[in-house]
Amino acid sequence: MPELPEVEVVRRGLERHVVGTRIESIAVAHPRSIRRHLEGEADLVARLTGQHVDAVARRGKFLWLRMRPAEEALVVHLGMSGQLLVEEPSAPREKHCHALFDLSDGRQLRFVDQRTFGAMWVSPGGAALPTEIAHIGRDLFDPEIDLEEAAQRMRRRRSTVKRAMLDQSLVSGIGNIYADESLWRARLHPLTPTNAMSQRQAVELWQVARGVMVEALEQGGTSFDKLYVNVNGSSGYFGRSLDVYGREGEPCHRCGTPIVRESFMNRSSHRCPRCQRL
Fold it and tell me: Annotated catalytic sites, by residue?
């Protein structure tokens, strides 16, 4: 699933190519893509047709296009395989193109989703912050995030450190890849109890995580296949710089010990058994 750096790459691409355009028409090819818009396709089309895209915002893994003059938001979650592509109308239609927006500059914004786990919906009055996502925590790219407060909240949890990092109500945007990478850099075992961490340790972990994701953002995010791409269809290259995620059996870049993969919350954790002892 795309995490914070990948979603921010998409946001920046949309900001360059879509902001300032008007939505001329909309075609929905798969109703599952708008399942979270409970009023249905006709209502979504009526609300958005003729609206101008004023800005593209993000919190964690959620994107939203701010509309004017209605002050509504088109909220998008990419799910496992969602893509937002800006293309010429003459470009071949993707097999899994589930929604298509004709823009006033002659191009199209296409929502492509092979696994159909992604979703989009209109949030009435949600231009500043859609109410449906107001409960999730600020992310590490948010200039208003308070790392000291986030560290305190994490340490108060009766949990383990990786589970806490994946809790989107605490700090949003971190998923399996960047949790593993951050814990390796911080030399922390994923099962470290959060209430056993010092305040300094907790703050430093959030700082490390932000640094990892800044590096990923600079390289266009992490791509393992063609399911994650930017709005122009290009892939990210941070996957070539990963230290532990997906490197089971390969030597640790720090000490040479083979990386291990362990089961964790119906997914996998990757760590160095020497550098990250419990």
Answer: 2-3, 61, 267
